[in-house]
Amino acid sequence: MVALGYHGDAFHGSQIQPGIRTVEGALIQALERLGWWREGCLEMSSRTDAGVSVRMNLARIDLPAEVARPIEETNLLRAMNDNLPIGMVVWSARGIPEKTRIRHSTSRHYLFRTEVMHDWPHEVDAEVFAEACSLFEGEHDFTNMCRLEEEKDPMRTIDECTPWLAPDGRVIGISVRARSFLWNQVRRMASAISGAVSGRNTLDEIRTALDSPEDPVDLGRSPSDGLVLWSIENPHSDGMTNGLLPETNWFSEPPSDMRGHTRWLALARLEMDTLLEREWLKRLN
């Protein structure tokens, strides 16, 4: 099992697609170059859309026996990373039982920087923001808060949805944990929560979207570049991460005017990329 991360703007999503650069495709190419590839030897834990960055995803790689037995973690990481494209890194690895289903995770943790929203207010009502977050906790039908795929169960249980705060108490975004999520679910939750403090929508509209899934309600979808899959847990991942949120005391504050905010978005993207690189370097060194 390997832990890997990647910058969302470097790939067109995680799942392999013909003629398009994807995370899975890059992993397959690396395994082919190393002579470790065979059909069906790779399974990814979580899929991500184009533009979504990942600090930690998990993959199961069935290595050839002559490689798996003697190889040490350091050598495996070096071999993989020497054959992966810029913007992607494998930063941890460990042996797991054969036939382990890597998709069976116990928890997934996302961060979304709501400051990137185009209508983000200069003065944020932290109490309203926190209340909007709390509305999503527990079990709900998320039909109105996802892009529902055919035959997918819209019921999901959110274990945690809390404000993501800077050290000075400034609201940066949201921190969300659950065992599983639906397509676009976190981005739509982030849009609704951000809308509650910007005035784009109300808390009651969020309640209605959750309590009356048979009545279509669209509270928007946040941009993908504010979203990070922060970590994944499964029965074999103990010790890979400590569960702590990243240091953000160096994050810049968005300007109050719309024109300035539009220009600031480039800096925010750079900060999010830097956040990931810092996290990976800590673990590789």
Describe this entry's structure for a reader.
The chain contains 7 helices and 9 strands. It has helices at 23-34, 65-68, 73-81, 126-134, 185-198, 203-211, 258-284; strands spanning 2-6, 42-44, 53-61, 88-93, 107-112, 138-141, 155-165, 171-178, 227-233. Strands 1, 2, 3, 4, 5, 6, 7, 8 and 9 form a 9-stranded mixed β-sheet that branches. Strand 2 (42-44) and strand 3 form a beta hairpin. Helix 4 runs antiparallel to helix 5. The longest helix has 27 residues, at 258-284. The model has no long low-confidence stretch (mean pLDDT 94).
Main attributes of the structure:
285 residues; alpha+beta; nine-stranded mixed β-sheet; 7 helices; 9 strands; globular
Strand count: 9
- Amino- and carboxy-terminal Cα gap: 19 Å
Class based on secondary structure composition and strand pairing:
alpha+beta
What would the principal axes of the Cα set say about the shape?
globular
Q: What is the overall pLDDT average? A: 94
| Percentage of β-strand residues | 15-25%
Order of helices and strands: EHEEHHEEHEEEHHEH
Number of helical elements:
7
Quick overview of this protein structure:
The radius of gyration is 20 Å and the shape is globular. Strands 1, 2, 3, 4, 5, 6, 7, 8 and 9 form a nine-stranded mixed sheet that branches.
Would you spell out the secondary-structure blueprint of this structure?
Layout: E1 2-6, H1 23-34, E2 42-44, E3 53-61, H2 65-68, H3 73-81, E4 88-93, E5 107-112, H4 126-134, E6 138-141, E7 155-165, E8 171-178, H5 185-198, H6 203-211, E9 227-233, H7 258-284
Parallel strand pairs: 3-9
Antiparallel strand pairs: 1-3, 1-4, 2-3, 5-8, 5-9, 6-7, 7-8
Helix pairs in contact: 4-5
